[in-house]
């Protein structure tokens, strides 16, 4: 639908279709996922903040990660829940840009946090004697600030570039707002947006490769050490690697779907691939970290048995 740019006040989502009464079942499933992700992340944030034994670099970085999970899940799931029950699937343009801002900040802060966690594990395992001297309170605060500052500045810039475009359409072939879909609706040249997007995507991909390189170095050190040190290192790195691979695969599938023609793929599978990394990751991280990190698991068990 091509319309005059001055009339674009809302976007219409074309990916929604009528599923009858089944929409209430889908609504209930997504509501449960959202409530679980909020509860689990808030619980781990409170546990880390209230227990001085967890005031260590890795757990403070994880606390920042769980805060980011709250932003990601809240930036999408309440919106999806409203859209599922709505008869008309539209969103005002300002709210669409706000959703893009929240979701893209979430995705990028996630990668930056995983990079900082890999750096922290590298220092702890490969340079244990120098670790406490290097990872001071000041450096922890600086790293947490930077892993939020760079993504926020980059995504605010990207969203501002998209918001300044004159649009000649308002149909988004998605379930939610994303930057690429909005840019495709522009009336005029979008070279600046495309170049900026390519450069920043390349930077994030470079960050991903750096994370992989760091873990390869860690694994090489682990397998050259004693059995006890190897077991301890693997136990602390496993949840980080699981989180990285789960999130990276979800992002990769989303990029593939947004850039290529997926009409030959069943629509339900396309919807699942589109939502996977935004819906599952906020619940996956607190679950995997809560179950695999010994200190957090012990505190969680004590809280549960105290209530029984």
Strand content: under 5%
Gyration radius, in Å:
21 Å
What low-confidence regions span 5 or more consecutive residues with pLDDT below 50? none
* Main pleated sheet: 3 strands, mixed
Bulk shape: globular
> Mean pLDDT across all residues, rounded?
85
Helix fraction bin: over 70%
Broad structural category: mainly alpha
Attribute tags:
11 helices, 308 residues
Please tell me about this protein's structure.
The chain is 77% helix and 3% strand. The protein is built from eleven helices and three strands, in the order βααβαααβαααααα. Helix 1 (22-50) packs antiparallel against helix 2 (57-85), helix 3 runs antiparallel to helix 8 and helix 8 crosses helix 9. The radius of gyration is 21 Å and the shape is globular. It starts with 9 loop residues before the first strand and ends with a helix. The relative contact order is 0.14. The mean pLDDT is 85.
List the helices and strands and how they pair.
Layout (H helix, E strand, L loop, with lengths): L9 E4 L8 H29 L6 H29 L4 E3 H34 L1 H7 L2 H27 L7 E2 L6 H5 L7 H34 L2 H33 L7 H13 L1 H12 L1 H14 L1
Parallel strand pairs: 1-3
Antiparallel strand pairs: 1-2
Helix pairs in contact: 1-2, 1-10, 2-3, 2-10, 3-4, 3-5, 3-7, 3-8, 5-7, 7-8, 8-9, 8-10, 10-11
Short structural summary:
The chain is mainly alpha-helical and 308 residues long.
């Amino acid at each position: 639908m091509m319309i005059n740019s001055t009339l674009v006040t809302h976007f219409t989502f074309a990916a929604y279709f009528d599923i009858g009464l089944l929409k209430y079942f889908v609504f209930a499933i997504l509501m449960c996922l959202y409530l679980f992700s909020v509860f689990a992340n808030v619980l781990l944030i409170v546990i880390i903040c209230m227990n001085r034994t967890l005031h260590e670099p890795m757990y403070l970085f994880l606390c920042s990660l769980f805060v980011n999970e709250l932003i990601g899940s809240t930036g999408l799931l309440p919106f999806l829940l409203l859209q599922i029950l709505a008869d008309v699937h539209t969103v005002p343009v300002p709210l669409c840009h706000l959703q893009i801002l929240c979701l893209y900040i979430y995705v990028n802060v996630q990668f930056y946090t995983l990079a900082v966690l890999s750096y922290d594990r590298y220092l702890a395992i490969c340079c244990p004697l120098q670790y406490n001297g290097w990872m001071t309170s000041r450096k922890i605060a600086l790293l947490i600030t930077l892993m939020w500052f760079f993504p926020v500045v980059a995504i605010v810039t990207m969203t501002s570039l998209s918001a300044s475009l004159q649009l000649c359409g308002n149909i988004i072939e998605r379930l939610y707002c994303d930057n690429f879909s909005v840019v495709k609706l522009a009336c005029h040249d979008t070279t600046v947006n495309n170049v900026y997007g390519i450069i920043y995507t390349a930077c994030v991909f470079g960050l991903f490769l750096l994370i992989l390189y760091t873990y390869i170095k860690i694994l090489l050190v682990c397998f050259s050490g004693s059995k006890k040190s190897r077991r301890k290192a693997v136990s602390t790195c496993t949840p980080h690697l699981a989180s990285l691979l789960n999130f990276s695969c979800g992002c990769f599938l989303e990029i593939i779907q947004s850039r290529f023609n997926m009409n030959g793929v069943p629509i339900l599978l396309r919807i699942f691939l589109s939502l996977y990394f935004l819906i599952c990751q906020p619940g996956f991280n607190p679950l995997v970290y809560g179950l695999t990190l010994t200190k957090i698991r012990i505190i969680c068990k004590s809280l549960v048995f105290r209530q029984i």
